[in-house]
Amino acid sequence: MATTTQSNVEISDGNWQAGVVGGIIGAIVMGALVLAMNPPTLAVAIPSLYTLAPPPSPGMGLFVHVSHGAVLGVVFAALAGVVGEGSTGKLAALGIGWGVVTWAVLAALLMPVWLSAVGSPANPPFPNFAIPSLLWHVVYGLVLGVVYAQVEDNL
């Protein structure tokens, strides 16, 4: 005798447009914090990833940073779809978690290796688990999650 079990779990793809909007706004807010707390990060380190600095260029750094924020916002939207999009609080918490992951993997581990590979003058040590950077990424994730929650049904 065979038995079958069926599960009706619905997984959404998330709203990628809301992810882009949330990612852009989150990256702008984060960029403002970076400029206030450590301008060389935005003016030299981030544009150096693509050999766009030196000379220091906060505008180019912000452009690169916001572009990264938009792409990471799309990944966040996919995660929101997998966990089941929910309340603003749930999405804010997911955003904070996503901010911590992006800090640990991308900023603390990948960025120092990448900057070293391109010969950047702003190459941080490896690993670079800097607490200010954690704060910036948590703020990015929080703003991303809240904005995503507010616009997901309108896009």
Ordered list of secondary-structure elements with their pairings:
Blueprint: H1 16-37, H2 39-48, H3 58-83, H4 88-117, H5 131-151
Descriptive notes:
The protein is mostly helical and 155 residues long. It has a domain of 90 residues. It has 5 helices and no strands. Helix 1 packs antiparallel against helix 5, helix 3 crosses helix 5 and helix 4 crosses helix 5. The longest helix has 30 residues.
The helix/strand class is mainly alpha
Mean pLDDT comes to 90
- Strand residue percentage: under 5%
Order of H and E elements: HHHHH
Biggest beta sheet summary:
none
C-alpha termini separation: 49 Å
Spans where pLDDT lies below 50 across 5 or more residues? 7-11
Name the features:
155 residues, mainly alpha
Give a nutshell description of this structure.
The chain has five helices and no strands.
